[in-house]
Amino acid sequence: MEDYGRFLALLASALLVGFVSVILSFVWVFHYREGLSWDGSAGEFNWHPLLVVTGFVFIQGIAIIVYRLPWTWKCSKLLMKFIHAGLNTIAMILAIVAMVAAFEYHNAQNIPNMYSLHSWIGLTALIFYSLQLFFGFAVFLLPFAPVYLRALLMPIHVYSGLTIFATVIAAALMGITEKLLFSLRDPAYSSSPPEATFVNCLGLLLVVFGLLILWMASRPHWKRPLEESTKVLRPIGGTAEGTEVESTMTSSSNADKSDMRINTEAARKQNLKFDESGQRSTM
């Protein structure tokens, strides 16, 4: 791997920042807020930020870069697909539970749903994330999609995954700001009480974590190398199915050799005819 040391440094930084973000979420919920419960009180709502940071941000980020861990390159591609899909499934389940907790709390407290930009973007991200996971299973994990379809959809799959991840972090930043604005009354958020400073630091860590993940996921020289059995020849404007290309090239080569043999044989026979006619003329 090129720049192996730099990759390890960025990976360690991302894991550290992501893990600290999860810890700070627990501290916020249990030290500054009302803890956790599932009874329609504020404790039920606290599941929302905790599970979003843990699942929708941290676990999803790890799922994005799991293919780029060099010590997993000896594992089969199918195994890595299952790990990638499993991590994303866990992240989606936690995100759904977080969404349910927010809706149930709002309903129990007679608070309107889906009126803020945070809720719009958050729900949109969850819907597209679910679709991303569904089509990922259908196209890349199950052995039914043809190779050309996978090659066509792979750039879209990668781009949409990174876009959804960035959108989730943006929604999380809006959400924690909205929570502080509504919850901090005396002292107010504008006076920068300890909780406000603490949660602002959590938001900065989420931004740093997102930037590290996006940087590692967008470097082409840190991609998982192609397996020997899946390497393909890609002529300009040609097919991505290397076996067909190789067989065509082999057939063409064999045909050329056969034509050369035929031409050589024809020339030899022609020379024999010339020799015979020459012999007849001298007799």
Automatic annotation (TrEMBL):
GO molecular function: metal ion binding; transmembrane ascorbate ferrireductase activity
Catalytic reactions on record: monodehydro-L-ascorbate radical(out) + L-ascorbate(in) = monodehydro-L-ascorbate radical(in) + L-ascorbate(out); Fe(3+)(out) + L-ascorbate(in) = monodehydro-L-ascorbate radical(in) + Fe(2+)(out) + H(+); Cu(2+)(out) + L-ascorbate(in) = Cu(+)(out) + monodehydro-L-ascorbate radical(in) + H(+)
Protein location: Apical cell membrane
SMART domains according to UniProt: B561
Reported cofactor(s): heme b
Membrane spanning residue stretches: 7-30, 50-70, 82-103, 123-144, 156-176, 196-217
Superkingdom, taxonomy of origin: Eukaryota
Residue ranges of domain Cytochrome b561 in the record: 13-218
Any single Gene Ontology cellular-component annotation: lysosomal membrane
Membrane topology label: Multi-pass membrane protein
Protein keywords: Cell membrane, Electron transport, Heme, Iron, Membrane, Metal-binding, Oxidoreductase, Translocase, Transmembrane, Transmembrane helix, Transport
Extent of Polar residues compositional bias: 245-255
Any Pfam family: Cytochrom_B561
Protein name: Plasma membrane ascorbate-dependent reductase CYBRD1
Lineage, opening ranks: Eukaryota, Metazoa, Chordata, Craniata, Vertebrata
